Amino acid sequence: QKKGISTVYQEINLCPNLSVAENLFIGREPMTKLGVINHREMVKRSRKLMEDMELPVDVTRTLEEYSLAMQQMIAIARAVDMDCKVLILDEPTNDLDIVTLNILEEYLKEFGGSLIIVSHDRHFLDKLVDHLFIFCGDGIVKDFVGSYSEYREFIKEYEAEQRSIARAEEKAAKEKAAKDAASSAPEAPAKKKKLSYKEQKE
Predict the structure, then answer these.
(1) Which residues of the chain are under the pLDDT cut of 50?
(2) In angstroms, what CA-CA distances link 194 with 130, 187, 188, 201, 202?
(3) What is the pLDDT of residues 125-164, one digit of tens each?
(4) Directed axis angle between helix 98-109 and helix 68-80, to 10°?
(5) Do 71 and 24 contact (CB within 8 A), yes or no?
(6) Cα–Cα distance between 8 and 156 in angstroms, integer?
């Protein structure tokens, strides 16, 4: 976090028994001059944050009173409010409904930093990403510039091209094998010329 990197995990890592405002500012609570938590300032800033995300949330209510979808959005709001430059999201759409999903998409489009998203939701990825890291196994990671749909189309074309090459190579191998077999076959003995009656008499 000190280096401007915030992560929101798939499983919500907040305190359900605390208020939304308290969850938003855990570990970074605004303090008064006397060194105690400034609850009024914390609630004020929390309300502003929820308004910016267009979330209908009463920040004085406990987190557990809200749906998993809303809790996920609150966790993302907390991460973004930490003045992060890089936001890592692990399966952020798993618990979202259509309303919160649309809100999240629009909010992330306006995010000024870099997003790193781990997700199985191709439609969500298409709307937000322009660069992919493809994990191929055995420690191999490939880099692709473009959306997820563009990558899928690229893979289809690549696989079709590979199949075409394989068929051409197979055909060439068969033709070569047939040619080699023909050239190595022993020549049939020449037929003995039948002499004419005149040639036999001579």
Answers:
(1) none
(2) 83, 21, 18, 13, 14
(3) 999 998 998 888 888 998 999 988 999 899 899 889 999 9
(4) 10
(5) no
(6) 33
